[in-house]
Amino acid sequence: QKEVEQDPGPLSVPEGAIVSLNCTYSNSAFQYFMWYRQYSRKGPELLMYTYSSGNKEDGRFTAQVDKSSKYISLFIRDSQPSDSATYLCAMSGAGGFKTIFGAGTRLFVKA
Amino acid sequence: DADVTQTPRNRITKTGKRIMLECSQTKGHDRMYWYRQDPGLGLRLIYYSFDVKDINKGEISDGYSVSRQAQAKFSLSLESAIPNQTALYFCATSDPRGRGDTQYFGPGTRLTVL
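ok -> structure tokens follow
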């Protein structure tokens, strides 16, 4: 079993839809939870960062962490074609040692 | 200028050839990483270095070697390239004093081994 599971998609939605991306994990030592966005032919870039459980909002993006269920989510409101990319969840333990990445979910937002 | 740069950006080579991929960073971070990315498998860690004198194997180090020439430079070598090393390779840096080992990635090197 992988430490981090993420549905690779692809996920295709119309412009303006609410998008929900999810990851599950097995290691209860993870404390830092990140979402990276990767455009085609580019390196991943940090989109959202959360420490421990709870929600964090940044514009149209909301990250949720439920440590009791070992489940994290990224919500995108009013999705735009420019949101079309691969989204990778990532997590690390105390001291930020060794980040583990999910396989990434490919998202297409159609105009 | 980009904070993390990789050269070359694209490389086509033949089986058995020695290949070196180079990474430079201007972020001043001590930690540097090499990953490969394959469709459906995500990012897999090849090697990582927490400072110039510290080199560690990652999840898939067989067939690869690295050299940390300076804080800013970390190179990845394929001593004898084989076709299943065809992949997208990323260098990354991080600062342990920052947010949970947030990684900063270079633009990637697309390597094809024929």
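The interface with chain B takes residues 6, 8, 31-32, 34, 36, 41-46, 49, 51, 88, 90, 92, 95-99, 101-104 of chain A (CB under 8 Å).
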